[in-house]
């Protein structure tokens, strides 16, 4: 802009200096060609005015350009300030997220297990109990003695009979199998409600698991979902089983984990361990063209082996044996000539390393059971540790403790309610998980027999809370407070807690049905219990109440 002003001033000065009237001629006479000079001056004046207009236009354009530059600078400065504010909010959001994540990890590592001292939560969460008449301890005691104890007297004799027959059947199975090519079957173990002494509803079914191993020189290499850094939500609680040669070091060489290419060979395994034929791996019950154990193949093999074993020893028994469920490999039923029958499950499992955690081929179905991701994914069962934990805790509880009684009553009432309104997403395993959590949370003296009513209400309120939050965590997975006496694998204690109610998030119709059934059970609890309870005189009831006070 200063250059433009200077140019305008220069043009004006030049015009003044060149003006004919400023320096007139000495003779003072008017020249003859005055008109021509005047005409030229007018033309010069016009040209100067045009030049002035052009310069003014240039000055205006320069001023506009300067303003545009200044406005652009202001926009850039504003964007910088906006970016600074955005960066500040981003950083603040990240800090908040990290704080929430740290709190969540701390909560999952231990605090989620702490249910003791939650009286305020229980009071808030017990909304479903408003207006519900709950049976008193006298009615509960009479119900337990008449209905529970009266129907479980033959359980021990049934267990003994089933175990003896299962041992004989497995011995015959070993004799009909090819020791050089077939799987090697070990002794069976009893797990579940029948062996934890809380099964109350008929038919009584014994659950037996049978560990098996591949023939030499092969072995199983198991990998749980928590062994890897990340796993999909639908694979949590599962694992895979790889069939390898015993002398094969799958962890020490990268050739099994990396594609080397067509023009590269592993110097360790290129000659000693060539690719095994597909037929050989299928003979080892693997999924087609893989080294991973196939649960469906195991089911077929086990059913055929059990059938051969029964044909060998059937002449020794005066009953028939048959498979009761087609989709379960070891669901067997003994049919006597009198018409009575006994059902039991004989399920093949694979031991996880040197622990008592097992990969189970087929898990008992329930209303909330999720489908397996594939037939090479096996569900992990902690049934052996659950039985040991109950036995360990029972040694520290008062005589005739009420923990098993609470679970039996709750299981019985829930089963009766489901028979009236249809199945729900809750299973007996969920009820047992609630009891395990409360066993760890409450001190031993809280489980005295006279506190049956209070502990039963605690279990119902805890279950109501879990249903409300759609969260019931597996007792062992992610629980850092498991007693060291159990020898529980540390890898599962450090794993992310497993939510047994996760399917409720995915299946809203099942969740709604489950919640409705639970609330209906609460409303009908007194009626369901009184239906199976003998009449108790009022004086006797008052006497029991005074003694408890």
UniProtKB/TrEMBL annotation:
* Top-level taxon of the source organism: Eukaryota
Q: Which residues form the signal peptide?
A: 1-24
Q: Which Gene3D superfamilies does the record associate with it?
A: 1.10.1410.40, 3.30.460.90
Q: Name one GO cellular component term.
A: nuclear outer membrane
Provide a Gene Ontology MF annotation, just one: protein kinase inhibitor activity
Instruction: Recite the UniProt keywords alphabetically.
Output: Cell membrane, Coiled coil, Glycoprotein, Membrane, Nucleus, Signal, Transmembrane, Transmembrane helix
Topology in membrane: Single-pass type I membrane protein
User: Where is this gene product found?
Assistant: Cell membrane; Nucleus outer membrane
Mab-21-like HhH/H2TH-like domain boundaries: 405-477
InterPro entries associated with the record: ITPRIP-like (IPR026250), Mab-21_HhH/H2TH-like (IPR046906), MAB21L/cGLR (IPR024810)
Its annotated function is as follows:
Enhances Ca(2+)-mediated inhibition of inositol 1,4,5-triphosphate receptor (ITPR) Ca(2+) release.
What family is this? Belongs to the ITPRIP family.
Name the UniProt record assigns to this protein:
Inositol 1,4,5-trisphosphate receptor-interacting protein
* Species of the source: Probosciger aterrimus (Palm cockatoo)
Designated gene of the protein: Itprip
């Amino acid at each position: 802009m200063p250059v433009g002003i200077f140019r305008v001033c220069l043009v004006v000065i030049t015009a003044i200096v060149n003006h004919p009237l400023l320096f007139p001629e000495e003779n003072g006479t008017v020249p003859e060609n005055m008109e021509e000079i005047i005409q030229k001056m007018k033309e010069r004046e016009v040209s100067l005015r045009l030049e002035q207009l052009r310069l003014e236009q240039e000055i205006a354009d320069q001023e506009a350009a300067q303003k545009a530059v200044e406005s652009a600078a202001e926009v850039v400065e504003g964007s910088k300030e906006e970016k600074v504010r955005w960066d500040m909010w981003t950083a603040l959001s990240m800090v908040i997220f990290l704080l929430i994540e740290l709190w969540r990890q701390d909560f999952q590592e231990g605090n989620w297990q702490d249910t003791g001292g939650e009286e305020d939560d229980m009071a808030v969460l017990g909304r479903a109990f408003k207006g519900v008449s709950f049976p008193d301890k006298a009615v509960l005691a009479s119900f337990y003695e008449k209905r529970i104890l009266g129907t479980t007297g033959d359980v021990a004799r049934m267990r003994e009979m089933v175990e003896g027959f299962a041992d004989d059947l497995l011995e015959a199975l070993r004799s009909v199998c090819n020791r050089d090519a077939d799987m090697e079957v070990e002794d069976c173990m009893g797990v579940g409600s029948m062996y934890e002494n809380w099964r109350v509803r008929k038919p009584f079914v014994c659950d037996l698991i049978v560990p098996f191993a591949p023939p030499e020189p092969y072995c199983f290499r198991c990998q749980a979902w928590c062994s890897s850094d990340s796993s999909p939500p639908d694979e949590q609680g599962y694992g895979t089983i790889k069939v390898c040669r015993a002398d094969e070091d799958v962890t020490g060489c990268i050739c099994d984990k990396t594609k080397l290419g067509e023009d590269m060979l592993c110097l360790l395994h290129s000659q000693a361990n060539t690719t095994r034929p597909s037929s050989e791996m299928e003979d080892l019950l693997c999924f087609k063209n893989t080294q991973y154990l196939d649960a469906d193949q195991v089911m077929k093999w086990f059913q055929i082996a059990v059938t051969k074993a029964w044909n060998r020893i059937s002449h020794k028994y005066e009953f028939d044996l048959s498979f009761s469920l087609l989709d379960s490999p070891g669901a067997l039923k003994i049919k006597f000539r009198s018409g009575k029958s006994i059902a039991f499950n004989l399920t093949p499992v694979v031991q996880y390393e040197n622990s008592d955690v097992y990969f189970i081929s087929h898990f008992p179905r329930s209303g909330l059971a999720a489908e397996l991701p594939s037939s090479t994914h096996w569900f992990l069962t902690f049934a052996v540790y659950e039985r040991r934990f109950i036995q360990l805790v029972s040694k520290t509880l008062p005589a005739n403790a009420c923990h098993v009684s609470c679970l039996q009553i709750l299981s019985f009432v829930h089963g009766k309610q489901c028979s009236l309104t249809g199945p729900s997403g809750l299973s007996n395993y969920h009820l047992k998980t609630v009891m395990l959590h409360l066993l760890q949370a409450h001190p031993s003296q809280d489980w005295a027999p006279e506190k049956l009513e209070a502990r039963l209400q605690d279990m119902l309120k805890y279950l109501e809370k879990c249903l409300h939050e759609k969260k019931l965590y597996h007792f062992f997975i992610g629980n850092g407070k498991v007693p060291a006496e159990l020898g529980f694998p540390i890898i599962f204690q450090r794993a992310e807690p497993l939510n047994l109610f996760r399917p409720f998030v995915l299946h809203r119709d099942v969740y709604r049905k489950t919640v409705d059934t639970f609330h209906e059970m609460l409303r009908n609890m007194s009626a369901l219990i009184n239906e199976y309870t003998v009449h108790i005189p009022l004086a006797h009831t008052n006497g029991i109440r005074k003694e408890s006070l």
